[in-house]
TrEMBL record:
It comes from the Eukaryota. Residues 347-373 are annotated as: Disordered. InterPro entries: CAT-like_dom_sf. Transmembrane segments: none annotated. This is Condensation domain-containing protein.
């Protein structure tokens, strides 16, 4: 979701939203892609009536609510077609918009889609409506910007040898073996089998001076911001829920295929808008203190995480392996789940989305994005932490299902994580001048 500031009236924004969304589709046709468990389709629209019908289904305007409330409501809806919601005349807070899209289609692309939509709403010609800006879609115009799958790009650029396949199978065997080891984690609610699903997407923000101090601290400590934050998550969970008898910490995270492929242009075959690869690692409690409380201990834990982070991503051929596994996983998810197959604890999980910026000036008639947050729908038995920054302001989200976890307990954990992180960067904080 994004908040924005503008001198444009709500009426002007409403008049422009349809043409703005249509032109966003021209730049980012992924918003016109429909998907289900088996198929991904894109239908070009040759008439303005067809375009209007698509817009009516996928771009809505709401008022007398808040951007945050719309964001939460959308995250609780089942994943369907991409949908943009423009929020005008809110009961509190700024105006803004919310984009809901399936994670099978996009990862970090959501920020760019929202950027383009806001840019288009600032164009005066879009106030005349879609009839004045419409031009029929043709395959020759759309194809260069249509997304390609990670599996497709991999199949073109990589041709594994038998030795490559043997190596990647060993990686997968090691990854699977971790699930049988005793690990720290967040205990699932004892009544999770009968509790209803209720998605939460929470945000915790650091102060601007804390973000600056964090960057200075990481440079001095010789660790990445992501590894340091993951260390704080791990330690907080271990301290709060660990018995001390666990073999270690089984950590889950998301890797990015940009390490192996050009995901922006896709080598002229279209962008790879979903380039995320699931990753995992094992941190052995006999090698490092997973309950570290002080700066030295947290730094050592962060360095151990950094060393282990590449274990599951040691070969580009994991992209091909996950493509082969996807149909089996999808079929399994479609079947009734055996409660005995569920883990007893939610593994520590982190996605790091990096820095996001939108520095366009907010002059007369312009629209400036004043804030941006990521979130979504997570029905897995874990609490997914998402670390990112907007204009150098550091924050993290927590996405979880109340079916498995109690909201108050998750937020207590969130503040414990923040406390550990603040202790790690405390020496670099400059006291405010009175």
């Amino acid at each position: 979701m994004a908040f924005f500031e503008t001198s444009l009236t709500c009426e002007q924004l409403k008049n422009r939203h349809q043409a703005a969304w249509w032109r966003t589709r021209g730049r980012r046709p992924v918003v016109g892609v429909s998907t289900d468990m088996e198929n991904v389709t894109f239908e070009p629209h040759a008439t303005v009536d067809a375009a209007k019908e698509w817009i009516a289904k996928t771009c809505h305007v709401v008022s007398r609510t808040t951007v945050t409330d719309v964001f939460l409501a959308r995250s609780r809806q089942p994943v369907g077609a991409p949908m943009m919601t423009l929020v005008v005349d809110p009961i509190r807070g700024s105006r803004g918009c919310v984009l809901k899209m399936s994670h099978t289609l996009v990862s970090h692309e959501t920020f760019r889609i929202i950027q383009d939509f806001i840019t288009e709403m600032a164009r005066p010609e879009n106030e005349l409506g879609i009839d004045t800006v419409f031009s029929p879609e043709t395959w020759s115009d759309i194809r260069p910007n249509l997304p390609q799958s990670l599996a497709h790009a991999y199949s073109i650029h990589y041709h594994p040898t038998p030795a490559d396949l043997e190596e990647v199978m060993k990686i997968q065997e090691r990854a699977q073996a971790r699930w049988s080891r005793t690990t720290i984690g967040i205990p699932l609610h004892p009544d999770w089998q009968t509790r209803p699903t209720r998605i939460h997407s929470k945000i915790v923000k650091f102060e601007p001076e804390e973000a600056v101090a964090a960057l200075k601290s990481m440079k001095k400590l010789g660790v990445t911001l992501t590894a340091a934050f993951f260390a704080c998550i791990t330690s907080a969970i271990a301290q709060r829920y660990g018995s001390g008898d666990e073999e270690g910490a089984h950590l889950l995270f998301s890797g990015n295929a940009r390490r192996w492929l050009d995901i922006e242009d896709g080598y002229g075959r279209g962008p790879i808008t979903m380039g995320i690869i699931p990753g995992g690692m094992w941190i052995d409690s006999s090698e490092v203190d997973i309950r570290a409380k002080d700066k030295h201990g947290l730094t050592q834990l962060a360095k151990a995480i950094e060393r282990r982070q590449g274990d599951d991503l040691a070969s580009p051929h994991v992209m091909g392996l996950y493509d082969q596994m996807a149909p089996i996983l999808a079929q399994g998810l479609a079947q009734p789940q055996d409660p005995a197959a569920f883990p007893t604890v939610g593994r520590p999980t982190l996605t790091s989305q990096g820095p996001l910026r939108d520095d366009r000036p907010a002059g007369p008639g312009q629209i400036q994005m004043s804030d941006f947050y990521t979130g979504g729908r997570n029905t897995d038995p874990n609490v997914c932490f998402g670390l990112h920054s907007f204009r150098d302001e550091l924050r993290y989200s927590l996405i979880f299902d109340e079916r498995f976890f109690v909201q108050d307990e998750v937020m207590q954990l969130a503040y414990a994580v923040a406390g550990l992180f603040r202790s790690l960067i405390a020496e670099e904080l400059v006291p405010a001048k009175l």
